[in-house]
Design a protein that fits this description.
Shape: globular
CATH class: Alpha Beta
CATH topology: putative 2-phosphosulfolactate phosphatase
Oligomer: single chain
Number of helices: 9
Order of helices and strands: EHEHEHEEEEEHEHEHHHHEE
Strand content: 15-25%
CATH architecture: Alpha-Beta Complex
CATH superfamily: ComB-like
Helix content: 25-40%
Length: 304
Amino acid sequence: MKIRILKTIEGAKEAEGLSVMIDAFRAFSLECYLFAAGARRIYPVKDLEEARAAADAHPGCILVGEEGDAKAEGCLYGDSPWQTGAGRVAGKCYDGKPDIFTEDNILDGLAVGPEGPFYPRRHKGFDGTPGCAAVPGLFAGKDIIHLTGTASSGILAAEAAGADEIIAAGLVNAEAAAKYALIRNPQSLSLVALGKGGLENAKEDTLCAKYIESLLTGETIMGEDVLPKIFRTRIFTSDKIQLIADALLTDDGKEFFNPDPEWQEVYPREDFFLCTACDLFDFIIRIKRDEKGILYAEPASVSM
């Protein structure tokens, strides 16, 4: 199996074989939570015009997504797993509290964190409460229209490049993506880290790609384009993925900790912890087209 890590939309244009599209903050993480909350299908669209057309074609669907840094017009929710209430899904519940911050904590000799030092999470932040935090059963059996410009553009680019099969993942289901790749055993595997706006490197996406590669090959995880700044000279094995993901709150994850109330309406701090709950789900997101040629996503369980 030839494995390549590609970055941004430009990288997606070179995708081949089995192609894993990665958008950890937040598009594909949100979709995992929505599927776990019972959604039937998710139709990814790249702009508001497409979203409206898709909604007309699917009566009773739910619109979610954002344009720019705000919930898109006509959408019930933005791109936030926390705001949709999907933090409470599949017998799990995020308790809404960040990991413990204390003044005396030292992480490998370093005091880190936008709000001071922090403890690496000791659990995944779920307490076992069933149901959906926003409206119980809201997404069960529903079709979702998801306005997500970067993710949709990446999928279309990989499709145009001739990728044999396209799936999607984030940190929350990265191990499932690796297992799926082992089962499929393609000649070529493209791990596409879509990045910020599809234009530049995002460490969370590149980390996810490197983690999947590490699970498949045993390669170590290293590099300034992958690791948070506090770990930039370190070398990690795949079993340290949760520690690395947690430390993203000192780097590319800082945006979730801006205390401005209006900012928190779009990027709530809870989303950071939901999107970095590594390997929470045991399914991949399969990208397909229906009988009318319309692009959609559905979950596919992975077992070995």
